[in-house]
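Case study 2.
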Amino acid sequence: MTTQDGMISPQGGNRLFAYCHEGMGVGHLRRTITICNRLLREDPAMRCHVATGSPYLSLFDPHPALGWCKLPTITKHTDGSYCPTNAGLRLSPVISVRSRLLQLAVQKFEPNIVLIDKAPVGVCGELKPTLNWIKQHRPATRLVFGMRDIEDEATATIAQWSTLDAEFSLASHYDEIWVYGMRDLYDVGESYQLSTTVRRKLRYMGYICRPAEELAAQATSDEPADVVVTVGGGTDGGVLLDMFLSHTADRLQSQGYRSLVVAGPDLESGLCQSLSQKASRNPSVRWVRSDRHLPTRLRDAKLVVSMGGYNTLCEAVSLRCSLLVIPRVAPRFEQYIRAKLWGARGALDMIDPVALTANELTQRVMQRLLDPIRVEANAIDLNGLERVCERIRELTGSERKRTHETAVPVQ
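Prediction:
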């Protein structure tokens, strides 16, 4: 319920609307659900609604009160382009439908805070009508852009945001910009050459990660694996998985180690089948497509081998895992940049993809089993979830009238 001046009335309650387009993998959706789950557990009066096109909602355990707006699914190719999952459809009309659904959902839900993940204007600009509508018709609604610490290498991010006129929206529509990372590791304002107006809205929240005790709370009856290999969504993880199964797994078996390979839901079906068959020929390897108990597997493993997705790194470091990372370098360079920065902090070991061979992978895995990475407790700031939820409570608890020109100092 709204008042005449556009404010959400007290009886309307606090309402968060989150947008998470998720065209590849599940990392952004995992982070968004983590935030919403925490808010809903801590405040029974809170209402959260997530708009996403992800087909993988069944992989998560969202809070029962979490609402959904399911958008038509689009897929991101490894070259960075998008297309509808339904091959018979063209992208433009699908984006139009998604754009209209987003605006209708916001109008009906009447949020007093809107949290946009990763894409300031949405995929292909699909959020622009909604952002304009909020600014014109709901001036009291707080608009927040949440971004991971690194989007891509600077030149690529600047070019992409310039094409979509994203910085204009950051300056004119958004009240705050939450960076899910550390300024002393990666300065977003400096790297992406953001304007003074936009930089004043930046808040460095730290990395978003569930607390270690919450991550590893689930017990399993399975025998722990010594080495866990995970490639996130799996879209481009085939090379690493094949290399591990063809060479490294045999060496591990000969030394009495057990391996768990998590392929990811996006691994191409034909490749998944062939790699699964290869895994089945090694009795020391267990192959799964996805695993709800993955944090527990990470906790119990002697070594985690990963491509270095944001959530995997945060969870592994939170659980004090020994971590070997072979980052992706296409279509984005963000995993490589983050792995280098975290490696310099002593949080992980990294193999440059250019130097990756089956022999190098095997040698490094064996080395790290004998000489594990010991992560310093304060190497990486993993308190982002607490800061984000606290800031949401501050914003939704404010009754004063405000405008979209509110600037927030860099912290």
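The chain is about 40% helix and 15% strand.
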